[in-house]
Amino acid sequence: MKAAVTTKAGNPSVIKIQERKLPTLKENWVLIKVKSFGLNRSELFTRRGDSPNVQLPCIQGIECVGVIENNPSNTYQKGQQVAAIMGGMGRFFDGSYAEYCAVPLEIIFPFKSDLEWSILGAIPEMFQTVSGSLHQALEIKRGEILLIRGGTSSIGMLACQLAKSIGLSVISTTRNPAKEKALKENGADYVIIDRGMITQELKQLFPKGVNKVLELVGVQTLKDSLKCIGYKGVVCMTGILGNEWTMSNFTPMGDIPSLGRLTVYMGEAQNLSKDLLQDFIDKVAKGNIHLNIDSVFELEQIVEAHTHMENNLAKGKVVVRV
Fold first, then answer.
1. Distance in angstroms (rounded) separating the CA atoms of residues 70 and 84
2. pLDDT for 315
3. What is the pLDDT of residues 212-223, one digit of tens each?
4. Are strands 58-59 and 2-6 parallel, antiparallel or unpaired?
5. CA distance 82 to 319
6. What pLDDT, in 10s, does the model give residues 304-318?
7. What is the pLDDT of residues 150-162, one digit of tens each?
8. At how many degrees (to 10) do helices 124-131 and 274-286 cross?
9. What sign does the dihedral 224-226-230-233 (CA atoms) show?
10. Looking at the chain, which runs of residues are DSSP E strands?
């Protein structure tokens, strides 16, 4: 099979197209013929060599959609549409940057759809992350005010749509004034141009602060985001768009407001169900949800795709078609 192999730690050019043998199936594993997959920020860090315990070379890719090629347990039929996400995929065993990948049954989610594979490839990890962040971590409720820090990312754009669909007011941030219109068209009630500190501008809109913050930029803006919450507000750090894992000089009893809460969301496959996934896919098919897909690359263009993501050129999800 053809595979995009991350040969060593480094810039996007370390990913090479190679011929590999088909993966060997373990007990209760299935072989998927990959149709498409979305790129994720965590894969950028793995490629750079920043993911603990990940050994290179490897075939990256923490998600994919495709069809069942071989399923010795007969749990699924050959040709059945499925999605696979997380569970060590692309990190501790070879992932989806290939024509075929082998994965354990517990991270498989069957679905039915007539949507194009390039659209379906944008969904699994993005939906799992947004749904888990909003509902499980932040426990959003109708009537609340949500701040999305990093609003033009694929996660931020989808989070805005889902929050608006259940009755929240949404403030989205962007560092690029040219993207303000796109955020408004996506449903944001307010847009703040993010220059690193937005507390003062946000408090002019909402003097008492916001109820919830979805922090997608990461540690670079986390302290400022904590200042944006009101009484018993919650900040959930889900993203690391700022490309930094750790922060210095963090003082919990100074940086977290009294009665405020800070949590993180690092969802796995168990945070998603096949019914939730199918319902979301159906909403996309009906036009109730608009996916912000920035661009679609071919597997042979994986270096260009990683470069596009790393240079922050994307205004939505980057998808690779196999």
1. 14
2. 75
3. 999 999 889 999
4. antiparallel
5. 17
6. 999 999 998 887 899
7. 998 889 999 999 9
8. 110
9. positive
10. 2-6, 15-19, 29-38, 58-59, 63-70, 81-85, 100-104, 108-110, 145-149, 169-174, 190-193, 210-215, 229-237, 261-264, 293-298, 317-321
CA 55 – CA 46 distance, rounded (Å): 9
Tokens 């011929």 belong to: 19
Does residue 151 sit in helix, strand or coil? coil
Q: Which two tokens stand for residue 72?
A: 């010795």
Amino acid at 28: N
In 3D space, the residue among 309, 310, 271 whose CA is nearest the CA of residue 124 turns out to be 271
Which tokens in the block code for residue 124?
A: 């699994």
Collapsed DSSP state (helix, strand, coil) of residue 251: coil
Question: Cα(250)–Cα(269) distance, rounded to whole angstroms?
Answer: 31
Which residue's entry shows tokens 């053809």? 2
Task: Dig out the tokens for 84 from the structure.
Answer: 């696979």
Q: Is 49 helix (H, G, I), strand (E, B) or coil?
A: coil
